[in-house]
Design a protein that fits this description.
Elements lengths: L16 H17 L15 E2 L12 E5 L5 E3 L2 E3 L1 H14 L4 E6 L5 H14 L3 E5 L1 E2 L3
Parallel strand pairs: 1-7, 2-5, 5-6
Antiparallel strand pairs: 2-3, 3-4
Length: about 140
């Protein structure tokens, strides 16, 4: 004997509200624990461009020296002269002998100011010094 069964639309619905709750909690957890890094940019420095080069990637603990048009030096939003630059670089080398430096010179800055920054890196014992510029696509 066959037992009649009532067709109900509730049997075909899957309740996903608890699944959505768990998904939102996971999204909030990942956003709260994520580490965001910011690349240091000095807005007052206009870099020269090169068509052949690709943009330089930065190591997490790289010191970035910005050489402005007026010849002042800027590290981590702190303006300094050449003697302050030397002191800062010597302190960095004493903490990390393998310290890397990126020198970003304004395209209108005199070459001597950029060369002084690179020379100061060499005198401070930094062996990895790079010069930054923007790459352009032709």
């Amino acid at each position: 004997m066959r037992i009649p069964r009532e067709e109900s639309s509730d049997d075909n619905v899957i309740n996903i509200s608890s699944l959505l709750d768990v998904m939102f909690i996971l999204i909030i957890f990942f956003l709260a624990t994520a580490t965001f890094t910011e690349e240091e940019r000095d807005i007052k420095v206009n870099l020269p461009q090169s068509a052949a080069a690709k943009s330089a990637t930065q190591a997490p603990k790289m010191i970035i020296i910005n050489v402005r048009q007026d010849g002042s030096y800027n590290i981590a939003n702190e303006s300094m002269d050449i003697s302050g630059l030397q002191t800062t670089l010597q302190e960095a080398v004493s903490k990390n002998p393998d310290q890397k430096v990126l020198v970003r010179g304004d395209k209108n800055a005199l070459h001597g100011h950029v060369a002084s920054a690179v020379d100061m890196c060499k005198k401070s014992g930094i062996t990895h010094t790079n010069i930054g510029y923007e790459s352009r696509v032709e």
